[in-house]
UniProtKB/TrEMBL annotation:
This is DNA mimic protein DMP19 C-terminal domain-containing protein. It comes from the Bacteria. The lineage of its organism: Bacteria, Bacillati, Actinomycetota, Actinomycetes, Actinomycetales. Residues 49-157 form the DNA mimic protein DMP19 C-terminal domain. InterPro entries: DMP19_C. Residues 182-202 are annotated as: Disordered.
Amino acid sequence: MLIDRLCGQMLDHVVISAASARSADPALAVASNREVVDYLRERQVAYEEMSAQAVGSYFVDRYLSLVLEGGMAGFVSHSQWSPLIVSAIGRTLPLIGAIGHAEIFERLWEAVEEAPTPAPGADPRTEAAFEALTREFLAAQAVEDLVELNAAFLTAHPRTELVDQDDLLPFLDSLLAGATRARPGQGRAPAGAPASPGAAGAMGARTHFEQAIDLFCEMRGMTLEAVSAGDPSFTYRGAPATAWHFLTDAGHFSVVDLGGTAVLFDEKDIEVATIDTSSLAPVA
């Protein structure tokens, strides 16, 4: 499967409202990201100039809505099998932890590529394949809820910036006008709210685990595609540890920063490398 790297230029991080991130309703965070992407598109910002994570989340949400409404055939028809859309979905599903959905989407990709024409109803075998994949999608959705996974991905991502709802559109306008992004503590997050986990990253600083990921990629000759959210449920040698998942041109990996040492795991959670991180730049 082709996986494109969408390089954020104008907005290289996720922006959602602080209230949606704190809400118990996961749909609100997804909707807030959708509002941001839609607004930027209305202002003639290309998807390629937005955060790859925000765009991926946006199209996963659209994918869910279209499949629930009209099945896989409906999604293929409405998306017109746009390379940008399908690449964003194919890249994002494994990043948010929707492994079953990712496998189904991979088979959808194969069905479309093998079909005489992807137009719904044009070929009985293709139509039957779409219907079977729709049933598999619905079964997967009962186990891997894309709304919940999508929201968790957005709110926990290290490059997510939380903004007051009332300030959201003015904040985007300031970016479009070329104004300097607001620094943490200048009123973008509500009083008493914890600092955004992506605030430092949004301003250009590299977090400790991001520096470790850079080292691993350099050491193994890999190209970093995207960094996903942290997994606080991970355990290393019997002790709890946060694993940060990331996607490269060589596949899906995760890293655990132990403070002075970082451990790299492959997609099967098998330890494959260890590096000394004691010399990395400290992060405030």
